[in-house]
Amino acid sequence: MFNSTIGKIVTFLLVLSCAGSTLGWQFTIAKVFQQSAIDGFFPKCFAKVNKWKAPVLGMIIIDGHSNRLLFHDD
């Protein structure tokens, strides 16, 4: 029905969509953890931001734990 060029374009758009949704989720969850740390529900390290007001340390911690759980085998 379609040629291989269309398949490559759709595959590229699929990868782009997955990358965008993953980045959006990471920034959203990092901001939630940041505000929770400011409110006192999480450790203060999640409230730390860089000069652009991004909670980079919180993102690193969250991503580290996510990858640990993702690749953890019993």
Short description:
The protein is 68% helix and 0% strand.
Structure description:
The structure is a single chain. This protein is mostly helical. It is built from two helices and no strands. The protein has helices at 4-38, 56-70. The radius of gyration is 17 Å and the shape is elongated. The model has no long low-confidence stretch (mean pLDDT 91).
List keywords for this structure.
74 residues, 2 helices, mainly alpha
Content-based structural category: mainly alpha
Order of helices and strands: HH
Strand count, sense and barrel status of the largest sheet are: none
Number of strands: 0
Label the overall shape.
elongated
Furnish the topology, listing elements before pairings.
Layout: H1 4-38, H2 56-70
Helix pairs in contact: 1-2
